[in-house]
Write a structure and sequence with these properties.
The chain has 14 helices and 38 strands. By secondary structure, the chain is an alpha+beta fold. It folds into 3 domains: about 350 residues, Glycosidases (TIM Barrel); about 120 residues, Sandwich (Jelly Rolls), CATH 2.60.120; about 110 residues, Galactose-binding domain-like (Jelly Rolls). GO terms for molecular function: beta-galactosidase activity.
């Protein structure tokens, strides 16, 4: 479900002799057979083609197959890219598979970002330096367990009725603008132009998308080819089922994807692939050595020996394969997505911050027992490079006390962390209407005279989680995940209703218009059983951007919180910012352990590590890369929404712990409810949106 598909122009076997090169080239182009051609920087002419008679790839006329691993540049800090790539190369992989995330590079309409973690050109150039060929997957939809599947949130504000991933005129116009910004930056990296990119994706697991719009797919193929210009193969990937024909594109090479749970069906899977593409090499574009995890479920684990044995089976067919994920990394900030499975009875489920994925490498880029098992199998078909890996440092920096410093809903909090002018409107504004990627929105209105005691407050179409306050006094939590949309309000509690709504991550698979906020009426129950819609709302934006949080930390006043506020264990007056510092004398990776806290967002040295939610689990620690740390003083800020850890009860400052070991398997003793079931002794949840499980 993370994976996706991409496309390659099919070709017949070509033998290029230098004396007759031009004639052969023109003839091949005329019949649409050449799929890769150009001059590399070594001065030689290079092609990447398909031999449909021998059912193999041809690299410069010679049989070729790849064993690649997925690593998404946006899930590791740039200073860590090379070490991750080198560890992957040491396993024997000869290719790298990566997505390009539209929303990262185009966060607002007309605004583009190519710096830092968004420097995809630098990442691909490093991959070439480390000896990789590249399988590039620009989408534009990527899934990947990323917010909105990588589609920018502003599309749905600019075009409220847009039908993404179809021939909708507005959608293809915006994709055209995006590709015009992206593709020229990458053309020098295509294999035919001397670069490492041998294959370029067209769309992503489109066969299971409801639209089955081949006009759109053909347009996207041609739009991509406009820039690729036969310098790399175009390809697709689809889940092996009866819908594969919806993802197949004429003159684009087709691949499939499956994990260890379907390895016993491999003959039938290859047969399904041959049903849409009778010849050419067999490719599993997403072989899953692990799986994704949502909050409130058990961490997904897969046995390393089973993974290695399944990989060996795939390779025994002379197939090419990509391991998704080889290195998973982290959904830093608010980039983690969510899934939705109504048929399975699960509904909305947000992805955790870690993208460890139980992959071949761990979240910090280290080797695992699974790595050695996989490396041994790769060594049976490819030459293993002579690369010595240095073990990474994993250090514990101990306990850090955090001082409660500012209430989010206070005058100071609003002035410091809200953005823009609050909006007055009849209905609450959505995140998209506020042009806000993530964070929190505060909705406020005056309560009418209430007939009943208590009355029932209902939020229709809540997306995703709301803390409810009256006159800044906490009265309850409503949750899309847990399908709790109503709570009682007493007649005498106060006048101002305040709803602090959190975006927990936009759905990344199948449902792709996951507008955030409260979309329906907000009502209170009347004496006659009717519902009174509440109107005249003030919407205040709290995007919780790194710059604003760090500016607050550096410039905040020394004013102390009132003792009764500072001493809270359950935060009854709204979220509070806690801050502290720790000393570093030796740089190493570490893990921020927030056990005992409730739910919130963590920042280290001004960098947003992501969401934490140890009350729900299974993730208890947040990965802190050594590249974020500095010798001497380092800062931690938590914006805690709900609950402070237990040390407060002892009249001490609350603490966090910086540990040398990750904890991704905590709080997993969940009851078998909402469609969960036991598989191989572990709880699996039906909101996995593929059938590999």
């Amino acid at each position: 479900m993370s994976g996706c598909g991409c496309g390659c122009r099919c070709s017949r076997k070509l033998t290029l002799a230098m004396s007759g090169f031009l004639i052969i080239l023109l003839a091949a182009v005329a019949v649409g057979l050449v799929v890769g051609l150009g001059n590399r920087d070594d001065g030689d002419e290079h092609t990447f083609t398909i031999d449909h008679e021998a059912n193999t790839f041809l690299m410069d006329g010679k049989p070729f197959r790849y064993v690649s691993g997925s690593f998404h540049y946006f899930r590791a800090l740039p200073d860590a890219w090379r070490s991750r790539l080198r560890t992957m190369r040491a396993s024997g992989l000869n290719a790298l598979d990566t997505y390009v995330e539209w929303s990262l590079h185009n966060p607002h309409d007309g605004e583009y970002n190519w710096e830092g973690i968004a420097d995809v050109v630098k990442f691909l150039e490093l991959a070439k330096e480390e000896g990789f060929y590249v399988v590039l997957r620009p989408g534009p939809y990527i899934c990947a367990e990323r917010d909105n599947g990588g589609l920018p949130h502003w599309l749905f504000t600019k075009y409220p009725d847009i039908k993404v991933r179809t021939n909708d005129a507005n959608y293809i116009a915006e994709v055209g603008k995006w590709y015009a910004e992206l593709m020229p930056r990458l053309q020098h990296l295509l294999y035919g132009n001397g670069g490492p990119i041998i294959m370029v994706q067209i769309e992503n697991e489109y066969g299971v998308y409801y639209a089955c719009d081949h006009d759109y797919l053909n347009w996207l193929r041609d739009e991509t080819e406009k820039y690729v210009q036969q310098k790399a193969l175009l390809f697709t990937v689809d889940i092996p089922n009866e819908l594969m024909h919806c993802g197949k594109i004429e003159n684009v090479f087709a691949t499939t994807d499956f994990g260890i749970d379907r390895i016993n069906e491999i003959e039938n899977i290859w047969k399904m692939l041959r049903g849409v593409q009778p010849t050419g090499p067999l490719v599993n574009s997403e072989f899953y050595p692990g799986w994704l995890t949502h909050w409130q479920e058990m961490n997904q684990r897969r046995d390393g020996k089973e993974v290695a044995d399944a990989l060996r089976t795939i390779l025994s067919y002379n197939a090419s394969v990509n391991l998704y994920m080889f290195f998973g990394g982290t959904n830093f900030g608010f980039t983690a997505g969510a899934n939705y499975d109504l048929d399975g009875g699960v509904g909305y489920a947000a992805d955790i911050t870690s993208y460890d994925y139980d992959a071949v490498m761990d979240e910090a880029g280290g080797v695992t027992p699974k790595y050695q098992l996989v490396r041994d199998v790769i060594g049976e078909v490819l030459e293993l490079p002579d690369i010595t890996l240095m073990p990474a440092k994993r250090l514990s920096y101990g306990k850090v006390q955090l001082k409660p410093s500012m209430e989010l809903l206070s005058i100071e909090g609003r002035a410091t962390l809200s953005k823009g002018t609050p909006v007055q409107s009849e209905k609450p504004q959505t995140f998209e209407q506020m042009d806000q990627y993530s964070g929190l929105l505060l909705y406020e209105t005056q309560l009418p005279s209430i007939d009943l005691d208590p009355t029932l407050l209902t939020l229709n179409e809540l997306r995703d989680r709301a803390q409810v306050f009256i006159d800044q006094q906490f009265v309850g939590i409503l949750s899309r995940e847990n399908r709790i949309y109503s709570l009682p309000l007493s007649k005498g509690w106060g006048n101002t209703l305040q709803l602090l709504v959190e975006n927990q991550g936009r759905i990344n698979y199948d449902v792709l218009n996951d507008t955030k906020g409260v979309l329906g009426d907000i009502t209170v129950q009347l004496h006659n059983g009717g519902q009174l819609p509440l109107e005249n709302w003030t919407t205040t934006a709290f995007p919780l951007e790194e710059a604003s949080v760090e500016a607050w930390r550096k410039q905040r006043s020394n004013k102390e919180l009132a003792s009764n506020i500072a001493a809270q264990k359950i935060l009854l007056t709204g979220p509070i910012l806690y801050e502290g510092s720790f000393q570093v004398q030796d740089l190493g990776d570490t893990y921020l352990n927030v056990a005992g806290w409730g739910k919130g967002v963590a920042y280290v040295n001004g960098f947003n590590l992501g969401r934490y939610w140890p009350l729900a689990g299974p993730q208890i620690t947040l990965y802190v890369p050594n590249e974020l740390l500095r010798l001497g003083d380092n800062s931690i800020v938590l914006l805690e929404y709900q609950q402070v850890n237990k040390s407060v009860a002892n009249q001490e400052l609350p603490t966090v712990q910086l540990d040398a070991v990750a904890e991704l398997d905590g709080n997993t003793a969940h009851s078998l409810a909402n469609g969960d079931f036991v598989l191989n002794g572990r709880i699996k949840t039906l909101n996995h949106t593929k059938d590999e499980l």
